[in-house]
Design goal:
The structure is a homodimer.
Chain A (H helix, E strand, L loop, with lengths): L1 H22 L14 H13 L2 E2 H8 L3 H13 L3 E5 L7 E5 L1 H9 L5 H9 L3 H17 L31
Helix pairs in contact in A: 2-5, 3-4
The structure holds a DNA duplex.
DNA sequence: TGCAAATAATTGGCACAGCAAGTATAACCG
DNA sequence: CGGTTATACTTGCTGTGCCAATTATTTGCA
């Protein structure tokens, strides 16, 4: 039974690697689906949810430095997937949106991994789903990451760390 | 009960993000523990297990292109953590090993995330461990990643993909 | 009002990761 | 021998990611 534990633990590691490789590392670094890299796809996905968003907010949601996001946006803009529009009321801010092409990519892209996962989870028997949920819960607990912000993905709200409260801007069109 | 499923699924996503963020993104890109980047730490860890290893084998174990590994080794060598020794018998191969300093780093570093996980899993009650294992197993199944090579981490053997059967090399000192 | 401070996005510089193609050397095999 | 294969390395390129300025704009305060 000692060896059974060992085997289980080893399997957990292997599977965790696999999951990570698929979900996050689906585009390890180089170009991937549709010629988009991981971060680019990620930005597209965030944009597809957060409507027109300011560069700094996008950076916050992606947990990246603003200057990094600028670079990513440059490349996405060059591909014609996003547009930058200077805000009328505050001429400092830039609102980033998806173009039609960008929306198409966004609509097709989540199927890559997250969509796969979502579909799979949805058709999972209730008991198995509970097992998956419980298992991950335990993992997160072990890693002491329960207090960590989920980093947004399909959820709407963002807990920005450290930063002040986001001004309640009714930027809704 | 529909909403319970939804909540469970949402939680799975959030927790998955958390786990990924911790395990993989522990060293997002920039320098981290002891001034080492993620891939550098990873290489060190592989080296700490696989004794003297050839560059090509290291690349295979890290699932990286050999030229990428060369760069990583250059930086590790510059820091005095690894040494490259040309094999006497086959003058093409280079055996990479850890220096004393490198071993120290290796011994201290796995505590970063994987070690945390390992320790946590080890003290987990048998039942919970089975839940974690089963949950991940299901996830991997959903993602169709069961056939994917585990990418090695703590396990010894490597299933090199695509490549032919590894010649039964008795390079055991 | 008018000037200082804060804010937003960007730029430039740097290091690293990752790959592909090409090079040099060395081993193997007919 | 001579050609093929294997091994490591080099070079060139793209892309991330950060920090430290810079610029433009807005806000705040005296």
């Amino acid at each position: 039974m000692e060896s059974e534990r060992k085997k289980l633990i080893g399997g957990v590691f292997d599977n965790l690697r696999r999951v990570i490789q698929v979900v996050h590392g689906y585009s390890n670094r180089a170009q991937r689906v549709g010629g988009l890299t991981g971060p680019q796809l990620w930005a597209i996905r965030v944009l597809s949810e957060s409507a027109p968003v300011r560069v700094s907010d996008l950076a916050r949601q992606m947990y990246l430095h603003p200057s990094t996001v600028v670079g990513i946006l440059d490349r996405l803009e060059a591909k014609g997937l996003v547009v930058r529009i200077r805000s009328k009321r505050d001429h400092r801010v830039v609102e980033v949106s998806l173009t039609g092409k960008g929306k198409t990519v966004a609509a097709r892209s989540p199927a890559v991994a997250q969509g796969l996962l979502l579909k799979g989870l949805e058709k999972l028997p209730g008991n198995d789903l509970r097992v998956v949920s419980g298992g991950l819960e335990a993992l997160v607990g072990i890693l002491g990451a329960r207090t960590m912000p989920p980093r947004l993905l399909f959820s709407r709200e963002v807990n920005l760390p450290g930063g002040g409260v986001p001004v309640g801007r009714d930027r809704k069109h």
